[in-house]
């Protein structure tokens, strides 16, 4: 089949090949097969304590190794899984696999594992006990796990908030992912039971050239501090961005500068000293 290489080297279907309904049905069937065959795997990206230059945690990112199309990006298959009602199964598979791999990794003693969770998974009342059972099975402490939810998950406020509270009672931390891109407003920040806020990379990418972005981030950091939230900057790609973030008081970040998503065993906890810029 014809295949186009998309951004980041992900495989994409050529637009002319299949569209709309056909494509959706095809993906759904293949995703079901992938779940059965276990051709989904997990890539890991380091989350770095910027000042100390050591890995504070790793984010688990789902990857689908498609037999014909190569690696399919999660931004493509997660929405399909959601529409097909497969996200609970997929999400649990990723969580279990990531927890097992992380528990077996020597670096897990001093770091945490961060796993993305879809809003619909949070609507399942038994989700917290499934997570707790997974941790128990692999021998991880709840404090070693962070669950990431996008701010749009907060649309369904009351139900999701109940689930988040229970997870936090276990000692699991909650991160608001891609902060600043959704339609949630600032008032969610203190209503939402969270521990960590991940600033979307669009803000980080602007700081080296846009003084307004610097002001926004500086102010946000103060606000997060006052609310007791730890901020994590996403999408740090060059040393200039990292230096500015540190100056603004940002202590934790991730991005291609520190490592692309890949096998867990390729991550070393202590980073080499920063190059002078
Ligand atoms: P996310 O959770 O915000 O993950 C960060 C995304 O940014 C990842 O894309 C990562 O590869 C990319 N990234 C990291 N550093 C940089 C950088 O410096 N520059 C740029 N341009 N990009 C960077 P990825 O792996 O394609 O994942 C996309 C999204 O798919 C994730 O965004 C997350 O929302 C979702 N996702 C991934 N795995 C899962 C999963 O297991 N379950 C759920 N529900 N969603 C997932
Ligand atoms: Mg994330
Ligand atoms: Mg994010
Ligand atoms: Mg994202």
UniProtKB/TrEMBL annotation:
Ranges for domain EAL: 24-275
Domain of life: Bacteria
Protein name: GGDEF-domain containing protein
Organism for this UniProt entry: Paractinoplanes tereljensis
């Amino acid at each position: 089949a014809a295949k186009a290489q998309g951004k980041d080297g992900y495989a994409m279907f050529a637009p002319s090949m299949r569209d709309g309904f056909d494509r959706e049905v095809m993906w759904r069937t293949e995703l079901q097969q992938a779940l059965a065959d276990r051709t989904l795997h997990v890539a890991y990206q380091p989350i770095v304590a910027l000042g100390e230059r050591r890995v504070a945690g790793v984010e688990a990112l789902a990857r689908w190794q498609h037999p014909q199309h190569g690696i399919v990006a999660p931004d493509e298959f997660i929405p399909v899984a959601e529409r097909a009602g497969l996200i609970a199964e997929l999400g649990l598979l990723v969580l279990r696999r990531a927890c097992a791999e992380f528990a077996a990794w020597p670096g897990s003693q001093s770091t945490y594992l961060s796993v993305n969770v879809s809003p619909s998974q949070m609507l399942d009342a038994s989700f917290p006990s499934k997570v707790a059972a997974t941790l128990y099975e692999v021998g991880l402490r709840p404090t070693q796990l962070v669950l990431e939810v996008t701010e749009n998950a907060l649309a369904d406020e009351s139900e999701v908030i109940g689930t988040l509270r229970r997870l936090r009672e276990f000692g699991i931390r909650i991160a608001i992912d891609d902060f600043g891109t959704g339609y949630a407003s600032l008032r969610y920040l203190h209503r939402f039971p969270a521990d960590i806020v991940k600033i979307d990379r669009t803000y980080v990418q602007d700081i080296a050239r846009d003084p307004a972005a610097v002001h926004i981030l500086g102010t946000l950091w103060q606000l997060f501090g006052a609310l007791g939230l730890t901020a994590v900057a996403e999408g740090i790609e060059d040393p200039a961005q990292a230096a500015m973030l540190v100056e603004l008081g940002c202590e934790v970040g991730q991005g291609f500068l520190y490592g692309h998503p890949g096998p867990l065993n390729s991550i070393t906890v202590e980073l080499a000293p920063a190059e002078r810029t």
